[in-house]
Specification:
By secondary structure, the protein is of the alpha/beta class. Helices cover 32% and strands 21% of the residues. It is built from 13 helices and 20 strands. The strands form four sheets. Strands 7, 8, 9, 10, 11, 14, 15, 16 and 18 form a nine-stranded mixed beta sheet that branches. Strand 12 and strand 13 form a beta hairpin. Helix 2 packs parallel to helix 3 and helix 4 runs antiparallel to helix 8. The protein binds ligand BES, zinc ion (ZN) and manganese (II) ion. The site of zinc ion (ZN) has 5 residues, from strand 10.
Length: 490
Amino acid sequence: MARTVDIGADTDVLVIGLVTTDDGPAVAPDDAFDDVLSAEVRAALAEQLRAVGAKGKAEELTRIPAPAGLDVTSVLAVGLGSADKLDAEQIRKSAGVAGRALAGVGTAVTTLSGLDLGAAAEGFYLGAYTFTPFRSGKSAPKPDEQPVRRVEFLVPEPGFGEEALFRAQSTAEAVATARDFVNTPPSHLYPAEFAARAQQLAEAAGLEVEVLDEKALEAQGFGGILGVGKGSSRPPRLIRITHRGGAKKVALIGKGITFDTGGISIKPAANMENMTSDMGGAAAVIATVLLAARLSLPITVTATVPMAENMPSATAQRPGDVLTQYGGTTVEVINTDAEGRLILADAMVRAGEDEPDYLIDVATLTGAQLVALGTRTPGVMGTDEFRDRVARVSQEVGENGWAMPLPAELRADLNSKIADLANVTPHRNGGMLAAGLYLKEFVPEGVQWAHLDVAGPAYNTGGPFGYIGKGGTGVPVRTLIAVLDDIAAE
Ligand code: BES
Ligand code: ZN
Ligand code: MN
């Protein structure tokens, strides 16, 4: 078989996949790239790997010197688990682990592309992601800690899979954009700066952009965004970015709280620093509309993104204050820490004016999401059919969103003694669902709606796993783009 890259002296590492079999580890795929990995070399590799204890278990890493006949410095074998359970997500995860392990390497070549080029490429790119702009020379990554400079993917013939590669690269870059936004600390990313950076990216990509500053928000009655933002010296923004690609219209909304102290209903000090991630929904929808444009999706996608910093101060809103959401609904703010729903409601009503067919909102909305589903499983709520579709697509791409109900009986607990709504229920039961029910009040009539609560999944406070590192994960960018694809294909 032909290949487009040569394995030569400047190639540091060959990355191969290993599956488990009854007879020990086997190199996968077992039928591609014979000219690089002849049957003999393949057998020698398996033999040597077996000798050092490799099993081929999912994400296991084994590094050995290159056997005779292979012009590379070393071979990195990454486990893929059992061959019959091998799917795109496992390839992505294994490639991610390998991508991370290649730190310090110049050029790597991999045969994982023979299993699934797109998944392998996505995994390597995502796994190799690092975020270092805030490290001075004192802690900057040493040469052996820097991400792999170049990964070459073996393909059966020149030009093979170019589209899959473009897609994988574009998608991974969008995920990296979302991660970068989340990882940028609140000292440096506040509403005006966030909006300016998003505007700059969107204009560079030729998209339509509109930014409302605090005066425009005031003039147009965005009471939710203004109420949440008024405790901060750094005023709120609303940014709208449109990719115009066709008649069908999708509205994306993302929660952009650049830091959530809780406001006057202040959060405890422990782990409050993680609230730098409270704009993860905004980051994801901004990255997604940019990606939709890059992939020229034949639909119209508008991201409507409210941005505010939730701070306690002499100008902050108080528990008990009443504000008027965009569109006129009055709300008694019982708890200033339930701020996400207040900014999202304004944005949803505004997005409804475009008469979208679908509306998807994404938010790091509730601690209750973590209690219900853990750190890696987004909660998906909304109108029944579309909710199930989004959850299915999310599972297909490995982001694993899970459908959750919006129990009607909880709705009455959002009634207020003096306003149309209260922003919280008087109890903690079904906290993620109660937040969803609050948002449901603002879904435009007749629009198919999905609400993704990614409080845990957007930000990894633990160690790296698969293609996910510490910090911003970029979840749910890959779900969103897959849903947009699915809608475009209708
Ligand atoms: N941003 C938080 C939710 C959150 C918690 C995100 C943990 C990521 C990790 C949100 O604004 C919040 O504070 N929600 C409250 C709602 C409550 C007051 C009804 C919560 O979950 O405690
Ligand atoms: Zn919040
Ligand atoms: Mn909060």
